[in-house]
Amino acid sequence: MPGCKITFLPHQKAGVFQPRTSFRDAAIDLGILIESTCAGIGTCGKCKVEVKTGAEPPTKVEREVLSAQEIGKGVRLSCQALVSSDAVCVTPEASLSMI
């Protein structure tokens, strides 16, 4: 199965990952630490990123945690959003872990 290139902005870091990898896991692999006090189960809502391209449709958890307006703007939970093709993801400062 071919890999998907994910580029994280503004960090200018990119890597190739298997389809269905979460954006959170990809970010961690690239050294970008995204806040996630719920350990990636999608309940805290702190790992919000803006996926420009390359993600599967929002999950049930995302539709419960995020507003329709956020989803319409491409806001996703990085722990729930799965890559489906080459992707671009913007990681806001507010979503980064300070550890």
What is the overall shape? globular
**Helix share, percent:** 10-25%
Taking strands numbered 1, 2, ... along the chain, how are they ordered across the largest sheet? 2-1-5-3-4
The overall number of domains is 1
Structure explained in plain terms:
With 99 residues, the protein is of the alpha+beta class. The protein has a single domain, classed as Roll (Ubiquitin-like (UB roll)). The protein has helices spanning 23-29, 60-65, 68-72, and strands at residues 4-9, 13-17, 48-55, 75-77, 83-90. A five-stranded mixed beta sheet has the order 2-1-5-3-4. Strand 1 (4-9) and strand 2 (13-17) form a beta hairpin.
Task: List strands and helices in order, with pairings.
Elements: E1 4-9, E2 13-17, H1 23-29, E3 48-55, H2 60-65, H3 68-72, E4 75-77, E5 83-90
Parallel strand pairs: 1-5
Antiparallel strand pairs: 1-2, 3-4, 3-5
In short, what is this structure?
The chain has 99 residues and is α+β, with helices and mostly antiparallel strands. 18% of the residues lie in helices and 30% in strands. The chain has a 5-stranded mixed sheet.
List keywords for this structure.
single chain, 99 residues, alpha+beta, Ubiquitin-like (UB roll), 5 strands
